[in-house]
Write a structure and sequence with these properties.
- 24% of the residues lie in helices and 25% in strands.
- The chain contains 13 helices and 30 strands.
- The strands form nine sheets. Strands 1, 2, 12, 13, 14, 15 and 28 form a seven-stranded mixed sheet that branches. Strands 8, 18, 19, 20, 23, 26 and 27 form a seven-stranded antiparallel sheet that branches.
- The radius of gyration is 22 Å and the shape is globular.
């Protein structure tokens, strides 16, 4: 039986960071196991190629939800990366950390004192090289490139001006001093190419003799001996074999795969495991529970002005954009085309932003799993802190079978009410004078949709996921938590989970950056190194400047 000090399961956002950090000093042998293949598809590395890869069947687990009652029983596609870099290789590259109060509330509500934002900020800074410059909020010496988008489309300026005119506000940096208002967004792009977890962290480390990468390998289960994880069982090319872990097994499979692996290993809700015919190795009721996601809905307006992006779908224009990118790493293909957004409050009674904008200069129409562009512009809004909770269970004992997922989107009336407010906020924003030269007819849901009831029905017809599932192996100390604050599985030695599944509550923003930060912190705990010194940067909260311990 092969043996390694550390076995990391999943080469996604967390797994790549862990592989780099755990192998860096050469002291320990590290195995990184990935179910998918190499990130050789060229569309992965072209920022605009996101629209080709985020649902690509060969780069994706191709997961779908159960029929969602709150969404008129629609089945929702849940793309998850099955490739080196995981979802960081197929996502929209938006870099968001979440609001500082998200993390401070983890400490207050879940007893996770280690996770106050003052403890997380130094790790965010250590991982990034930001074009915004070195400051108390931003880092310039990390492996991950973080850049403002390159597109100078004038409609982005109209978007920011409308933020001022509407009173929704404008900020220079949503990851900085003022995390509220409209802004140009950061993206994980370097020299016109996607900066994924694989390109930023894994590839620079692969030359190390103590780091082994094994792709196209499905984890069947974690091997448990008594109350200790001692290895994993892996299938590859039709063969099943065991690999021993001398120190730890670390699950980094993401919010949908890590709980599945736990349950296949006999760790989880006892009644469900027995129902599936599994022997219970360790009962943990919270495995697969607490499933959360950001529900998102868009409004599309016809655009009175024509932009190059509107015609890029034409074969000749697509070819020219591709050639321009190949030669210069610039042009239409060098953008994710969602370069502006914002964090806003739906009403004045909300403590801090509960809604998120993503703004794009074209129309995005889904035809099955394909995206068609149109002469329009799109404003998308996420409901950031949903009250609804879903769950994940095994569908089969076959590791190749997708889990059963029911998100229960909009099952709580408060979630629907917040999205109704969001639709009104979007219309208020786009009605501002700044958009007079751009704004045509509202295409979807349409100007005939006006009453709260009509808006709600449109929301239930149009809402999809913003691809941020999390929470299924939550950190905490309650009976429903799965891991402690250092992400060690309760009751099982030498087993840790490091990915979006450990979030006790979804953050106010995109999750890629937080997951990488979580992995960097986990690596220090695993290696028994001291955490980076905490730093309480000041930030703007409503109209007051406060610290984190307000």
């Amino acid at each position: 039986m092969k043996s390694f000090d550390y076995i990391i399961v999943g080469a996604g956002s967390a797994g790549c960071v862990l592989a780099d950090k755990l192998s860096a000093e050469g002291q320990y042998s590290v195995l990184l196991v990935e179910a998918g293949g190499r990130d050789w598809n060229p569309m992965i590395h072209i920022p605009a190629g996101f629209y080709k890869v985020h649902n690509h069947p060969k780069l994706n687990w191709n997961y779908v939800s159960e029929p969602e009652i709150g969404l008129n029983n629609r089945i929702i596609d849940i793309p998850r990366g099955k490739v080196l870099g995981g979802s960081s290789s197929i996502n929209g590259m938006v870099y968001m950390r979440g609001h500082p109060l998200d993390y401070d509330n983890w400490a207050i509500k879940f007893g996770l004192e280690d996770w106050r934002y003052a403890n997380c900020l130094p790790y965010f800074k250590s991982l990034e090289t930001s074009d915004r410059g070195d400051s108390e909020w931003r880092g310039v010496n990390g492996p991950l490139s973080v850049r403002k988008g390159p597109d100078d489309n004038p409609i982005y300026e109209a978007f920011l001006k409308a933020g001022e005119q509407s009173g929704q506000g404008v900020t220079d940096d949503l990851n900085g001093f003022n995390p509220e208002g409209l802004s140009r967004l950061d993206a994980t792009i370097l020299n016109g190419r996607r900066s994924s977890a694989a390109t930023a962290f894994l590839y620079p480390a692969l030359h190390r003799d103590n780091l082994t990468l094994q792709t196209s390998s499905m984890i069947e289960k974690v091997i448990i001996d008594g109350n200790r994880a001692v290895g994993v069982q892996v299938s590859r090319k039709g063969q099943s074999f065991k690999i021993e872990a001398e120190k730890e097994v670390i699950l980094a499979g993401g919010a949908l795969n890590s709980p599945k692996i736990l349950m296949l290993s006999g760790i989880g809700p006892a009644s469900h495991l027995r129902e599936m015919g599994l022997e219970v190795s360790h009962e943990l009721e919270g495995v697969g529970r607490n499933l959360q996601d950001h529900a998102t809905v868009s409004i599309t307006w016809a655009c009175l002005k024509s932009f190059p992006v509107h015609q890029v779908d034409r074969p000749v224009n697509k070819l020219l954009a591709g050639l321009h990118w190949i030669l210069t790493k610039k042009g239409l293909a060098a953008s994710n085309h969602f370069e502006a957004g914002g964090l806003i409050r739906g009403n004045e009674n909300v403590e801090y932003p509960n809604l998120q904008y993503h703004f794009g200069p074209t129309g995005f129409d889904y035809e099955g799993r394909k995206i068609k562009l149109s002469k329009a512009f799109t404003l998308q809004i996420d409901q950031l802190r949903p009250h609804s909770r879903g769950y994940l269970e095994l569908r089969s004992l076959d590791p190749q079978t997708p889990p059963l997922m029911k998100f229960n989107y909009l099952s709580d009336f408060k979630d629907t009410a917040e999205l109704v407010e969001g639709i009104k906020k979007m219309r208020e924003l786009i009605s501002q004078p700044a958009f007079d030269h751009f704004r045509g007819e509202e295409i979807s849901p349409g100007i005939d949709i006006q009453s709260d009831s009509e808006i709600e029905q449109a929301i239930r017809r149009k809402t999809i996921t913003d691809y941020h599932p999390c929470g299924t192996c939550a950190m905490g100390n309650s009976s429903m938590s799965v891991v402690n604050s250092k992400m060690q599985v309760h009751g099982i030695q030498c087993l840790r989970i490091v990915d979006a599944s450990v979030l006790p509550r979804v953050l106010s923003g995109n999750l890629n950056a937080p997951v990488m930060m979580i992995a960097a912190r986990a690596a220090d705990w695993i290696l028994e190194k001291p955490q980076l010194p905490s730093f309480q940067a000041r930030f703007k909260f409503h109209k007051d400047t406060i610290g984190f311990n307000h």
